[in-house]
Amino acid sequence: MKSDEAYFLGALGDAYLDFKRNEVQIYQKDVEWLEYLNEILFRMIGERGRLFKRDVFMLRKRSKKLFLILKKLLNEPIQHGEYFVAGWFDSEGSVYLSTKSKIPVVDITQSEKGLSVLNNCKQILDGLGIKNFLNGPYKHWNSKLKTYHLRVYGKHARLFFLRIPLIHKEKKARFKKFLGE
Question: Are the beta carbons of 7 and 84 closer than 8 angstroms?
Fold first, then answer.
């Protein structure tokens, strides 16, 4: 598994995968980030997906070749874990200041369906020496499923920013703002 493939797998955290039609759809406000994913897609299969504008942007690609590669990658152990976490954070994560202590908090929230991926991310972060906490389950008022949070606080949020190769321009800018860089 190459680093960009690990990133792409992580970015699928916010994707709709249709294994019957061999179609992937990724929704995002940041079109530049989708263009970056489209370039990874091109390196993986030699073809690009199509970008559409709806209420947000969507990258869509239907490809049997892509799904054969994804099935293979999903059955391999994750290599280049920092890139996998970066893709997952760029698609699903947020960074904010804690309301009480005003320290930066990295947060990736998932329903119980995504708990196994959060556990993978936790193990990767632990291996990189980035202290993190898996909190939950929580019952959210508008969700039928329980939710979990993978969080990194304070100085470890700084380590996260330094060791995880984020691509999403908006999220990197928020990190820099909160870390005073």
Answer: yes
171 alpha carbon, distance to own chain's centre: 11
Answer for the pair 84, 124: CB distance below 8 angstroms, yes or no: yes
* Helix pair angle (64-74, 3-11), 10° resolution: 100
What CA–CA distance (Å, rounded) separates 150 from 135? Answer: 6
φ, ψ of residue 4 to 5 degrees: the values are -70, -30
Convert the pLDDT of each residue in 96-126 to its tens digit. 998 888 899 999 988 888 888 999 999 999 9
User: What percentage of the chain reaches a pLDDT higher than 70?
Assistant: 99
CA-CA distance, 29 to 144, in Å (whole number)? Answer: 25
Ranges assigned E (strand) in 5-162 = 15-18, 23-28, 50-53, 57-62, 93-97, 104-111, 133-138, 147-153
Q: Give 134-153 as a DSSP string.
A: EEEEE--TT-SS-EEEEEEE
Tokens of 45: 């299969």
Question: What's the rounded Cα separation, in Å, for the pair 7 and 173?
Answer: 19
